[in-house]
Amino acid sequence: MNVKHSDGGRLTLEFDDHKLLPLLFGQHDRNLARIEQKLKVSLACFGNTVEITGDTVSTPIARATLEALYRRLEKGKGKDMMDLGTVDAAVSFALNSPDTNDGPDLSKFEDTASNLDTWKRPVAPRSPNQHAYIKALTETELVFGLGPAGTGKTYLAVAMAVSMLKRRRVDRIILSRPAVEAGERLGFLPGDMKDKVDPYLRPLYDALYDMMPGEQVERLLGSGEIEVAPLAFMRGRTLANAFAILDEAQNTTPTQMKMFLTRMGENSRMCVTGDLSQVDLPFGAKSGLRDSLEVLRGVSGVAMTEFTAADVVRHPLVTRIVDAYGKRDGLLINKDGEK
Predict the structure, then answer these.
(1) Total Cβ atoms within 10 A of residue 126
(2) In whole angstroms, what is the distance from residue 223 CA to residue 220 CA?
(3) CA 111, CA 131: separation in Å to the nearest integer?
(4) Quick one: which of 17, 60, 140, 151 could link to 303 by a disulfide (CB 3.0–4.6 Å)?
(5) Helix, strand, or coil here: 285?
(6) 5 pLDDT exceeds 80?
(7) CA-CA distances (angstroms) from residue 32 to 9, 27, 99, 204, 216?
(8) What's the pTM value of the predicted model, to 2 decimals?
(9) How many CB atoms lie within 10 A of CB 330?
(10) pLDDT digits (tens, 9 = 90+) for 105-144
(11) Using CA atoms, how far apart are residues 21 and 312, in angstroms rounded to an integer?
């Protein structure tokens, strides 16, 4: 792979292995079309070459994106993952990675060692912040994942927990959320305790079923190797040899947050996720997540990853929605975790 010709906002890339090009380009060249759409460039294919036309800013980014995708295929990694999501990830890395003399540095995107192995499929980071988050989850005992909806805070935490359970690095997974309604009053819910709390915990179940066969999820839930429980059930427990995740932590009180964090036992990991722009506590009540950020920032053994709208991996419109609300409300978290 080399640059055959370069002239300002136009350059031609030549690829060595013809067999990899159908995977790189995608069915009906849809991967190239996606890069064109996101980077506002024009891509034209001629045999084993691709001509990139655009401005002097977007052209090097498109080149870096194509080169990184091709190198992943060369390494024999991710052939079953060369979908539009992978292309979006490469573009996100290219737009948010530091520049070098040859364009954006996409070495972290090409680092398949950060992929998380689950029972269904590997889960890979899709932005530099997600890469840093996975690194923190791998190396640190207590990790805070902060940021807007759709940035993968909870999904990647569950993926790390499932990966560690599969490798027997932990014996069980504990998933918890505070049972707080999002701006509604649902009244009394029918059924037993499980029926009453399941609606609050459904997003955690969704992530599990996306990474494990359904029958396996049910079996591990039955055996207690996976436990999904409201935060109120955590008091008095010691969570040893476990990966514990507290989701929607912005809706905890300071007392609840302290209670959860002090459940950590031997050979345990904890991840706390939340979005300080979506607090559903009664007016005037302080968020336990905000309080913990003030108390624990800088404490050894604690890592904090802050996501932005650039890390949103849902529908592209979600990014624009997050940006619009952020501009209106001015909800930018500073170093002290304050509005």
Answers:
(1) 23
(2) 5
(3) 9
(4) 140
(5) coil
(6) no
(7) 17, 10, 22, 34, 38
(8) 0.83
(9) 7
(10) 888 888 777 889 999 988 989 889 999 999 999 999 999 9
(11) 28
Q: How far apart are CA 61 and CA 57, in angstroms?
A: 7
Contacts 24+ apart (CB under 8 A), 78-84: 78/112, 78/124, 79/23, 80/121, 81/121, 81/122, 81/124, 82/23, 82/24, 82/26, 82/31, 83/26, 84/26, 84/30, 84/31, 84/34
Mean predicted lDDT score pLDDT of the chain: 85
CB 336 within 8 A of CB 297: yes
Task: Give the separation between CA 244 and CA 268, rounded to whole angstroms.
Answer: 8
Strands ordered across the beta sheet of 42-46: 2-7, 10-14, 49-53, 42-46
pLDDT more than 70, % of the chain? 86
Q: What is the pLDDT of residues 177-236, one digit of tens each?
A: 887 644 444 455 555 555 666 676 788 889 999 999 999 999 999 999 999 888 888 888
The 3-state DSSP composition of the chain as helix, strand, coil percent (nearest 5) reads 45, 20, 35
Measured between alpha carbons, how far is 192 from 9 in angstroms, rounded to an integer?
A: 64
